[in-house]
């Protein structure tokens, strides 16, 4: 769900072709995926193969892990200005990128260093796959792509062990753009005690609204761009229990007692068909999710602003202040 690397029209054509092929085949593609559990010498199943501590704010690490096959995922970790001299512990924001993006996106394209200058918070920006959907897929033809396991069971624990963080509920927030906004909402609900604040920037709040188009989109993009014909939720029949477990609007009670923020655009570019369809569907799912939160009496901040499917730096800057105010102070 991003314009980087391939054109949106090209992605849509590829996805459409793959969707039709899978629907017509009548069989699920890909071998059954399983979550990797092997431990490497660095602990938590991770082995650092590149990067390491440096004097500046931005830290870079690349890992070998049995959770991700075929390549080695990386992470950028942005430290507060005074991290190296203060001796203090800091809260952490896990910031998740969108589809067709990677761990460097927020630094390369969105000035994350400038947006967080002077802020007392660590920002962790991990790889999540070109279309990994922050999930352990039902099937894969490219080896393990267990992004959910990598982030929650490995990276989060590794960060707490290697940086001065607060290893507790009030010490962590998660946010993301597009696919990453969905991942943030999903992780917050499935792992109740991990994140005290969640923010979704143009990320869907429901997998099942609008003809369940988001689930179709996750399956099609993951098959085409990530899993070599495998899928996140299963083809032609979905693993319905897994869809429900991942679906924010079906996990409303899991957001009680947490800070919840959402934003989506109301006026996508009428010339860009992909952008229009994408953001309109996201907006509708956020409206459904927001209505469910309101019906349950769960406070949240949901914004509708002009524009289409883009990361809004001004909104992020305002939201970051709210995130810091919710978390334990440095």
UniProtKB/TrEMBL annotation:
GO terms for molecular function: diacylglycerol O-acyltransferase activity; trehalose O-mycolyltransferase activity. Keywords: Acyltransferase, Signal, Transferase. The keyword NAD does not apply. It comes from the Bacteria. Residues 1-38 form the signal peptide. It holds the Pfam family Esterase. It is an enzyme of class 2 (transferase). Its EC number is 2.3.1.122, 2.3.1.20. It catalyses: an acyl-CoA + a 1,2-diacyl-sn-glycerol = a triacyl-sn-glycerol + CoA; 2 alpha,alpha'-trehalose 6-mycolate = alpha,alpha'-trehalose 6,6'-bismycolate + alpha,alpha-trehalose. SUPFAM superfamilies: alpha/beta-Hydrolases. PANTHER family: DIACYLGLYCEROL ACYLTRANSFERASE_MYCOLYLTRANSFERASE AG85A, ENTEROCHELIN ESTERASE-RELATED. Belongs to the mycobacterial A85 antigen family. This is Acyl-CoA:diacylglycerol acyltransferase. The lineage of its organism: Bacteria, Bacillati, Actinomycetota, Actinomycetes, Pseudonocardiales.
């Amino acid at each position: 769900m991003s314009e980087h690397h391939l054109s949106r029209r090209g992605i849509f054509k590829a996805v459409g072709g793959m969707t039709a092929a899978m629907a017509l085949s009548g069989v699920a593609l890909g071998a059954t995926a399983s979550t990797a559990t092997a431990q490497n010498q660095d602990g938590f199943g991770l082995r650092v193969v590149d990067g390491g501590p440096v004097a500046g704010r931005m830290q870079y690490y690349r890992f070998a892990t049995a959770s991700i096959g075929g390549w080695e995922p990386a992470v950028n970790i942005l430290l507060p200005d005074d991290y190296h001299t203060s001796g203090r512990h800091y809260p952490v924001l896990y910031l998740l990128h969108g589809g067709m993006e990677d761990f460097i996106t927020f630094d390369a394209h969105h000035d994350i260093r400038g947006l967080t200058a002077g802020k007392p918070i660590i920002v962790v920006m991990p790889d999540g796959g070109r279309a990994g959907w922050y999930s352990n897929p039902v099937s894969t033809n490219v080896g393990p792509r267990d992004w959910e396991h990598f982030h929650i069971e490995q990276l989060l624990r590794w960060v707490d062990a290697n940086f001065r963080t607060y290893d507790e509920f009030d010490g962590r927030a998660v946010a993301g753009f597009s696919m990453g906004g969905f991942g943030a909402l999903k992780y917050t609900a499935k792992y109740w005690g991990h994140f005290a604040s969640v923010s979704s920037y143009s990320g869907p709040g429901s997998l099942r609204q609008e003809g369940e188009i988001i689930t179709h989109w996750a399956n099609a993009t993951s098959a085409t761009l990530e899993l070599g014909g495998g899928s996140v939720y299963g083809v032609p029949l979905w693993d319905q229990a897994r869809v429900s477990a991942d679906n924010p609007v079906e996990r409303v009670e899991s957001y009680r007692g947490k800070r919840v923020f959402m934003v989506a655009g109301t006026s996508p570019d009428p010339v860009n068909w992909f952008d229009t369809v994408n953001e309109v569907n996201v907006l509708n799912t956020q409206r459904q999710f927001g209505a469910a939160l309101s019906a349950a009496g769960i406070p949240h901040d949901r914004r509708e602003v002009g524009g289409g499917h883009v990361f809004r730096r001004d909104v992020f800057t305002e939201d970051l202040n709210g995130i810091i105010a919710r978390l334990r102070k440095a």
